[in-house]
Amino acid sequence: MDVSHECSWKKVKKSRSGEKGTTNESSSDDEEHEEETMIQPTTTTTCSSHKLEAIVHRTTSLLQENLPQTRNGWTALLSSLGAILLGYEVHLQTQLSRAPRVYGQIADGPLKDIYHQLATSHDSLLHKPFRPKLFIGTRAAVASTASYLFRGPTTEYVEFREIVQMTIDGATVAIDWELPVKDTADCGDRDCLIETIRHGPISQPIVLVMHGMNNHSNYGYVRSMKRACCKRDWIAAGVNMRGCGGVALRTPRTYSGAYTADLRCVVQRLSARLAPHTPMFLVGNSLSANIVCKYLGEEGLCGTLPSCVAGGAALGNPMWMQAANTDLIMSPVLALGQKKVLLENWASLSKNNEPYFKSCVRRAIRALTLLEFDEAMAPVMARNEPVHPFAFRVGYKDAKSLRNDASSFRLARFISVPFLQLVAEDDFLIYNTFKSKLVYSISNPNVLVMETKCGGHLGWQQAIPGQSSSWADEATTDFIGAAFDAFSRRRPYNCQVDSYFSSSDDRTRFSAQPVPIRSKL
């Protein structure tokens, strides 16, 4: 008997029996309806469960009838599914493989020479299509995760670490050097080269590579960039932000996207070691890309950039630091990373007995999102004025003031050296904010913006991570090589930044207003 008919028959039968039993009793029709309403839900649930069981049984039977019964049959089926999946990946790879889109002005100056040099070479980044690796580079999340988790290529060059002390507040940062000399070289030659790096004069070009938020210079994407530079006979230096890379804080101030004084101190310290006419190049990733852009804009604004700096590159630069542009998933993750930095340096932070500072740190530890963390730490963050002499200051009024000061788009138009901005269209972390402020970059004739179809956040995987350089490494080193060539031709030529200002008062309008702090920090 059909299940639905049986259920409806039981319902009718119960209703009729109720009618027969109520002829000579005082019960009214209300009891009859009440009994029926008590039975109906159970009957309906039973019917639904029977239908579901019947559907599952039929589906299982169909699968058992159609699935292979032998090993060869299973092999053929899995091979067919694998071929379909591989065909889809190849199609997706073909759709994503293309040369980058280029934005910028080609005016008289160093960038014009660089652009023409790259345009005439068919192997340069302007003509080289980014062909993402199957199953890795074709998906933004996977490509980004691989660039962070994989340690990078095994080193074959000489490496050593140098600890540099900041002259402003006594903080220390670590510089992880990688020299274009094989590790199998004579010990005397290695020691001599290390001493030259420490004391000068350095006659080979230097490329400073900075890491992103909550990372350090031993992450895979930093090591990969350093390796690509060493292969071109340049000296690579991985600069760790304060409190990162295993170097404990010596001051109660952690790094932030607005504080450029540490980078300024490192550049000035290394520029004093360079031999005459030896260039230096700056590369930033993610948060440090914002720092590099902001630093070059501040120096270009005031005309104080050291003459040895040949240019800069920013990979995955957010440009505009706003909490509304960080999604609900990434914001707690980034906040966890920031809290990890605080806990790793708890021994140094706990030495500050000022009550208000301790309360800010405690609120930051309890923060659930990145906005809450910034709101808690903003009053005790280190910062510097954006104009010369870049005076050291402490604290912001709130997180909004911190992020407004950290946003590099305001200063991007004052960069006075060739500058490359590299971004991927599927970058889930910074693409929307970067694109909204693109006009500030291309309004400067010294800035070249390149946008790829895919790549994720610092991904650009065109091979298995660790086996070869990423597409971003090759593209950036192509630009660095052209910038070094232009550097040798343009000195003593200097870019005129005064032409960007309509009046002399424009230089001072970027000065940050002093923020009252509740107590002495």
UniProtKB/TrEMBL annotation:
**So where does this one cross the membrane?**
none
Regions of compositional bias (Acidic residues) in chain numbering: 27-37
Question: InterPro entries from the entry?
Answer: AB_hydrolase_4_sf, AB_hydrolase_fold, Hydrolase_4
Give the start-end ranges of region Disordered. 1-44
Q: Which Pfam families match?
A: Hydrolase_4 (PF12146)
Q: Which GO terms describe its molecular function?
A: monoacylglycerol lipase activity; short-chain carboxylesterase activity
The source's domain of life comes to Eukaryota
Locate the Serine aminopeptidase S33 domain: which residues? 205-439
Q: Report the family membership.
A: Belongs to the AB hydrolase superfamily. AB hydrolase 4 family.
Q: What is the name of this protein? A: Serine aminopeptidase S33 domain-containing protein
